[in-house]
């Protein structure tokens, strides 16, 4: 059999790197192709003014069982184990304690209806109590978590994530993106800025075509986002239509982060958070001075992230500034300076934040994870049944797909 390499991994995000780490121990020859000029994909630490800002994943969710947390520990990379400030309202600004309790209870009841008496439609909007004054709050929180409007969100899928995840959420001060991108083993060959344009079957396995030539391999491991899979940037064999179809049922939600710089004498206290307006489904969640840094991290989700995707980061910053001025007073307008923003929805090779399942399509994750003809294998956060939308789910899906490939090699 004449092949150039045993396995080609397409995509150098958390899943592709997780797969590469598993394959590096196998003796098989591996080449990783990454379309962008950097590794990490949706794991991206941006170094700026001495800060290590995560524009994509930042939290080690389900931390006590998170592969990246284990990997950081093995590499002596310090972890921050302090509890997140999420859900708390700094000084109860614009959100009195009694209302916070009501809103949290409304969210709990919505979740309970979703798991105990789920609507036949499997549509998360149908589990809302129309009389509740806190439906915009529920939409905002669910938007942060899933990136989706409730009308497009599968109850079964959302509940599965909730039941799989734990309450431990840690961080890596030096950046989760940096941890992911820095974890590719040295014995794995990598070609950056080299997108796979086509994958076809041949007698010996697969041919992967790039602008710099075609490569023959025994197997390809595809770890691109569902936006990319469902689109037309990679030509795939017609037999993969069911996989593409599954990818369309698992679209990427909208989530964006905006970072604002603040002076040292600002009214923002370290490691606190506020919702801009808990009665607005588009509200931002503002993490004030993470790690004590002189920044505010604005997280937009679902309907709220649309402003960045549709109108660009400048519109997102204007929205965030208005919300912060409403809460902290006009004097903070001059203190807050736009620093950096993500634009995941506008990146052709990513196309959004993380996957959610459309109503009645939670099973699409299992369909997407299946190998094709023992030659094309699938990884990526969307293929994880319970830990989708996370960096550790992506990592573990890469390990799973790598082991599937190894089981087919002579
Ligand atoms: C704003 C935001 C916040 C998040 N917060 C968290 C968090 O706190 N904790 C958490 O666990 N997760 C979080 N996530 C989710 C997490 O980042 C992702 O689930 C995970 O990084 C996805 O990894 P992946 O390998 O599946 O996909 P990707 O990271 O998308 O990797 C796929 C790679 O394939 C490349 N590619 C595309 N097309 C081609 C091609 N034709 N040829 C070669 N390469 C190609 C892409 O450039 C990309 O590098 C967040 C995501 C976002 C956007």
What does this molecule look like?
This protein has 410 residues and is of the alpha/beta class. The protein folds into 2 domains: 5-46 and 55-79 and 176-251 and 356-408, 3-Layer(bba) Sandwich (FAD/NAD(P)-binding domain), CATH 3.50.50; 90-168 and 254-346, Polyamine Oxidase, Chain A, domain 2 (Alpha-Beta Complex). The protein has helices at residues 14-24, 67-74, 97-116, 135-146, 155-164, 176-181, 226-230, 241-248, 306-311, 313-328, 364-368, 391-408; strands spanning 5-10, 30-33, 45-48, 51-54, 59-60, 170-171, 189-191, 196-202, 205-210, 213-222, 255-261, 272-275, 285-288, 295-301, 337-341, 376-378. Strands 1, 2, 7, 8, 9, 10 and 16 form a 7-stranded mixed β-sheet that branches. Strands 12-13-14-11-15 form a 5-stranded antiparallel β-sheet. It has a two-stranded antiparallel sheet with strand order 3-4. A hairpin with a 2-residue loop joins strand 3 and strand 4. Helix 1 (14-24) crosses helix 12. The termini are close together. The structure holds flavin-adenine dinucleotide.
């Amino acid at each position: 059999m004449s092949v150039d390499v045993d396995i080609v991994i397409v995509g150098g995000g958390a899943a592709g790197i997780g797969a590469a780490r598993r394959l590096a121990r196998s003796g098989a020859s591996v080449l990783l192709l990454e379309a962008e000029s950097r590794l990490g994909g949706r794991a991206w630490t941006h170094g700026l003014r001495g800060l290590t800002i995560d524009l994509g994943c930042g939290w080690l969710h389900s931390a006590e069982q998170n592969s990246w947390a284990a990997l950081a520990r093995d590499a002596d990379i310090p972890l921050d184990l302090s509890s997140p400030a999420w859900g708390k309202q700094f000084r109860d600004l614009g959100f009195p304690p009694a209302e916070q309790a009501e809103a949290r209870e409304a969210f709990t009841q919505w979740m309970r209806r979703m798991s105990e008496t789920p609507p036949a439609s499997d549509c998360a909007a149908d589990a809302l109590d129309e009389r509740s004054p806190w439906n915009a709050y529920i939409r905002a929180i669910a938007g942060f978590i899933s990136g989706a409007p409730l009308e497009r969100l599968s109850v079964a899928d959302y509940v599965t994530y909730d039941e799989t995840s734990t309450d431990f959420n840690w961080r890596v001060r030096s950046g989760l993106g940096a941890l992911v991108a820095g974890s590719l083993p040295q014995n794995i060959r990598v070609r950056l800025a080299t997108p796979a344009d086509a994958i076809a079957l041949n007698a010996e396995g697969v041919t992967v075509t790039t602008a710099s030539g075609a490569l023959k391999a025994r197997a390809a491991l595809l770890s691109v986002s569902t936006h990319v899979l469902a689109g037309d940037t990679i030509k795939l064999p017609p037999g993969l239509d069911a996989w593409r179809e599954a990818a369309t049922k698992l679209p990427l939600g909208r989530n964006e982060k905006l970072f604002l710089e603040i002076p040292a004498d600002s009214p923002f206290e370290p490691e606190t958070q506020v919702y801009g307006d808990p009665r607005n489904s588009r509200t931002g969640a503002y993490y004030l001075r993470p790690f004590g840094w002189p920044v505010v991290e604005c997280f937009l989700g679902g309907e709220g992230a649309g402003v960045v995707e549709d109108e660009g980061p400048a519109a997102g910053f204007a929205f965030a500034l208005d919300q912060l001025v409403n809460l902290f007073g006009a004097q903070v307008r001059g203190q807050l300076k736009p620093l950096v923003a993500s634009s995941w929805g506008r990146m052709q090779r990513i196309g959004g934040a993380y996957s959610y399942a459309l109503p009645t399509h939670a099973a699409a994750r299992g369909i997407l994870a299946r190998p094709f003809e023992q030659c094309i294998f699938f990884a990526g956060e969307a293929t994880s049944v319970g830990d989708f939308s996370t960096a550790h789910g992506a990592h573990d899906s890469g390990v799973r797909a790598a082991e599937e490939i190894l089981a087919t090699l002579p």
